[in-house]
Design brief:
Length: 340
């Protein structure tokens, strides 16, 4: 966890200047080169946070985009990823390396006029279970193995990457637990659509908010953010309010979920009428999936419980050299309070 060494690094909040992304890039390139020279297989998780408030970019990129500070940060991320791909080619390991580009959530829309992102046609943003908060890019790159320019409409989520990486490494998944992810290698390497009826479950905290099946999405609860936050000027859906959908109260629709056809209505603005045959047909397909999911779900114990400071990475490998080792505090977990 190299980023841990730079957690006290200066970000100029006034100008938005910081060369953290460049530092992370150099660290990543150095790691790849060392592993390549030693002929060791490697896994690199490269997760710069420049588009997370406070948004920042290196001096060379500040003011260069047409999208304010956020655009500058994205421009530098784009450049950095290009550098990583070029480095893999230069080291002649590009045809033996899978690169997967994605994000952990949609762009935040609440960080201010110059620090907020855009989710295009999708509704709302980060911290919601509307498409703007949950849908992310997914780009897989593997010269010689993945045909360039192809598009696959297989529904997938980040949890699939774990199972997929195991498959590529020739390792069987652990059998002592239920895994939520699926192996995407047939999708990536053979352009197959092998899990056509695979549902996606949208959670907020431990509440099942929505379920997607194919092109259809059913909302069992709707909520953007609280009236208390909204009255303070915090809006997760600025300029996108949809009556009865982007609610500031937690509204339950369990008995009659709101259903959208995302292919025709990606912005989730027009719920399908409950009086139509289409609605009844979709509900009859999704309801048993939800019932089965709730019946078989086994709540897990968080492995990285943010409500126990002892699990934070206080002393990562190599911290002695940099004199950055911190004493691990006593484990005293407490019940998390998640306002969102």
């Amino acid at each position: 966890m190299v980023g841990r060494y730079y957690e006290e690094f200066m970000i100029d909040r006034k100008t938005g200047e910081s060369n953290l992304t460049h530092i992370y890039l150099m660290e990543g390139l150095d790691f790849i080169e060392r592993q390549s020279q030693a002929r060791r297989p490697f896994f690199l998780y490269w997760a710069p946070d420049a588009t997370h408030a406070p948004v920042y970019a290196s001096k060379h990129f500040l003011g260069k985009s047409q999208r304010g500070r956020y655009g500058d940060a994205v421009m530098e991320l784009d450049y950095s990823i290009g550098q990583i791909l070029s480095w893999l080619k230069l080291l002649s390991i590009d045809q033996n390396t899978l690169v997967f580009f994605t994000s952990d959530n949609g762009a935040a829309l609440t960080s201010g006029p110059y620090e907020s992102g855009s989710n295009g046609p999708f509704l709302c943003g980060k911290e919601t279970t509307f498409e703007g908060g949950m849908r992310e890019p997914a780009i897989a790159w593997w010269p010689g193995r993945i045909k360039e320019g192809t598009v696959n409409f297989q529904l997938a989520n980040v949890m699939d990457l774990y199972v997929t990486c195991l498959a590529l490494a020739g390792i069987s998944p652990p059998s002592d637990r239920t895994l939520d992810g699926i192996d995407l290698t047939p999708v990536l390497l053979k352009q197959l659509h092998t899990h056509q009826n695979r549902p996606i479950f949208y959670y907020r905290g431990d509440e099942l908010m929505a379920v997607r099946l194919g092109e259809y999405k059913a909302h069992y609860w709707t909520w953007s953010n609280s009236w208390q936050e909204f009255k303070k000027g915090i809006n997760f859906c600025p300029g996108q309010e949809v009556p009865g959908v982007t609610t500031h109260d937690q509204i339950e629709h369990t008995m009659q979920p709101l259903i959208f056809h995302l292919g025709q209505d990606p912005g989730e603005k027009f719920p399908i009428s409950v009086l139509t045959k289409e609605y009844q047909d979709v509900l009859s397909r999704i309801s048993p999936i939800v019932d089965q999911h709730k019946k078989t779900l086994v709540p897990g114990v968080p492995q990285l419980n943010m409500c126990d400071v002892a699990v934070m990475n206080w002393a990562p490998a190599g911290c002695e050299k940099l004199r950055k080792c911190l004493k691990v505090p006593k484990s005293q977990p407490w019940k998390c309070d998640w306002p969102h």
